């Protein structure tokens, strides 16, 4: 039995992308025909060890390398450097064995045949995993009630709501009863109710009752915080922190955090905020730039000293402060303290 | 190779394709209507030179086979080829369009089996053409077949289908790499139609162009079927073309086997597998 259900050593994936085309006239035309290529390091020497039965989170902003990591582990991509093993099998050398050991759950509307029923979709995938017909039908009958889809199982998927499609996605990933499940943003774009159903199912059923090993990627820090035993924070293809959610937050516990919601903010004066004495990091994220609505996070040594100076600075610049509070560190604060950016930048 | 595993994959793909095909009623109707004007156009264009009977008679005097029958057989084989090119060749691209390519490629399936099943389901979807076009054309254009051996006709038809299936699987494998599968498939339609002699015997082409004709399985399919249906040919007269069809099927299947592996690996290396 392997020590880790999933293990990566210096796993790296580099993509080629077209360089920005500059120049004018003929030069521009020829560069369009044969554009220069640039390298984009999507996953950069990552090392992970995920234990059997663990619910492991990969948290990071869009474009951080989460999906590429899932694709490497699920054999959809071949690594350029390093190795990865899933259930003891090498993803490059034993792809079939890896595929047999995993269930892949993606987020979004894709990945299902809309003109087939939910039951037909599940049967189709069960056959691709070489499951005998009788066993497959029994398993499908067991899986459907777990996500409350048994009554709609014989309707075409196109008639399903977004949340129902996502629940079908989840049980499609379980149709072969794999020991390891790779979930790529399974709650992406779902309403809070549907997202909660998926989260509860993952935590209580998949990990709690079925003891599956789960790698769960998300850019929702609350989700990672609630669900995961351990979390790796990924940014620009690199793992920048890895620990339990509590320990990650503990690392910045000595930092005071001021959270503000403001309106009428004219420009992102992060540098000026950061220049205030005692401020370690200041991040502004506009939620509605047309009216200058933004949320501001300030990491500092002493909130009592920084708060009056910062608010005065903002008011002087025309901003209206809607809410102001001193908050406990979240995983987003961990991310801010390490990168100087918000998770959803 | 695990035969049961491959059979399950084959069955799943076949059943899914037939269900998806029949789920789009408009597509079924379009498939029914589509071959009729194509066939009519191929035949009626000769009306420009006189009545069809006169033109056919004049052509036959210079060694040309019966006009309408020649075109009908050519069109049927071409339509089967076309259906396989789109049904099998573009099947992986269709998975991209449906957003299912990733979930298909993370399953431990043999992609060759996936393509073969797509090909067979395409043949089933198109099989009515053979019966309907024959029946309708003979009624409309009064062509009298000259069949001396039905088993030979059946053998020709099956051999042609096997060869066309192999071509479809080859293209299917090759098209994994490209996002322009539909454009390439469209681009292949007219040249194949010309070089395989859908509407005329290939021996009227210049010698150099005939060389191209004889590396296309569609040509052999048309030749054997014309021979067995229109000229009363039996196994003694068509065996060479049958051998050519199976040889080509074998070549294309072997090529497909290696192409699929190489192309899938390259697509996974470049990260283009799931790109539109």
Overview of this structure, please?
The complex is a heterodimer of chains A (345) and B (276). By secondary structure, chain A is of the alpha/beta class. Chain A contains twelve helices and 14 strands. Chain A has helices at residues 25-33, 66-73, 95-101, 118-128, 133-146, 162-172, 192-209, 221-227, 245-250, 270-274, 303-316, 331-339; strands at residues 6-18, 37-50, 55-59, 81-86, 89-90, 102-106, 180-184, 213-218, 230-235, 238-243, 256-263, 279-288, 293-300, 320-327. In chain A, the strands form three sheets. A six-stranded mixed sheet of chain A has the order 6-7-8-3-9-10, with helices on both faces. A four-stranded antiparallel sheet of chain A has the order 2-1-4-5. In chain A, strands 12-13-11-14 form a four-stranded antiparallel sheet, with helices on both faces. In chain A, helix 4 crosses helix 5 (133-146). The longest helix of chain A is centred in the middle third of the chain and has 18 residues, at 192-209. Chain B is mostly helical and 276 residues long. Chain B has one domain. In chain B, 78% of the residues lie in helices and 0% in strands. Chain B has helices at residues 3-23, 25-33, 35-44, 52-61, 67-89, 91-98, 101-105, 111-141, 150-174, 181-195, 207-213, 217-230, 235-270. The radius of gyration of chain B is 20 Å and the shape is elongated. The two termini of chain B are 32 Å apart. The mean pLDDT of chain B is 86. Chains A and B meet through strand 1, helix 3, strand 6 and helix 4 of A and helix 1, helix 7 and helix 13 of B.
